[in-house]
Amino acid sequence: MLLWVGLGNPGAKYAGNRHNIGFMAVDEIARQHGFGPEKTKFNGLLREGLIQTANGPQKVLLLKPQTFMNESGRSVQKVMQFYKIPLDQVTVFFDELDLAPGKIRHKIGGGIAGHNGLRSIRQHVGDGFKRVRIGIGHPGHKDKVASYVLSDFAKSDANWVDDLIDALAHCADILAAGEHDKYQTKVDLMAPPPDAKPRRNG
């Protein structure tokens, strides 16, 4: 069994925030792959489902912690303990300031780069979880970070955000099969970042 965690803040006022792109990703995975309804459990919203992979069906839990970002680890820890899920079977989807908008990177472990959700998870369960870093870009100065991540995506971002969320979900079978490098490559091909798309001359 795999546990995939989307990070964000609960409530309608935060739903479209850049900080909530992790929630957006797991919601779309649930939609495309026919997961069951959300259940309020373990300080979070939890869904169960099967993702069909080349190696057969893989059971996946999708979790959206409802503790607010800086306490996300409490919910993750409770789910891991109840279902006896080892740390190396946990993947966290989250917004990444240090990646250009629309870029993604898959990695295992590493620093937290000031991300309060990652900090909380690391404090509660350790550092060996997998990460899908979803680039949202940086506002240019650290004093602007809080207002930037807690603001909605600009209208001009709508196309790449929608394309990327769709690609993250469409390729979930590759991630569920453990082919992490292939997952990153396939998502990049399906939804190239805005600055990577070909431009017409003149």
Describe the overall structure.
Strands 2-3-4-1-5-7-6 form a seven-stranded mixed sheet. With 202 residues, the protein is α/β, with parallel strands linked by helices. The chain has a single domain, classed as 3-Layer(aba) Sandwich (Rossmann fold), CATH 3.40.50.1470. The model is unreliable at 197-202 (pLDDT under 50). It has helices spanning 21-32, 72-83, 116-125, 145-149, 158-170, 172-176, 180-190, and strands spanning 2-6, 39-41, 44-53, 56-65, 90-96, 104-108, 130-135. The N and C termini lie far apart (52 Å).
Task: Quickly list its features.
disordered C terminus, 7 helices, 23% strand, seven-stranded mixed beta sheet, 34% helix, Rossmann fold, alpha/beta, 202 residues
CATH architecture assignment name: 3-Layer(aba) Sandwich
Distance between the termini: 52 Å
Strand content: 15-25%
Under CATH, the homologous superfamily reads Peptidyl-tRNA hydrolase
CATH class: Alpha Beta
Read across the widest sheet, the strand sequence of neighbours is 2-3-4-1-5-7-6
Q: In terms of per-residue confidence, which ranges show pLDDT below 50 for 5 or more consecutive residues?
A: 197-202
Number of DSSP strands?
7
The number of domains: 1
The largest sheet is: 7 strands, mixed
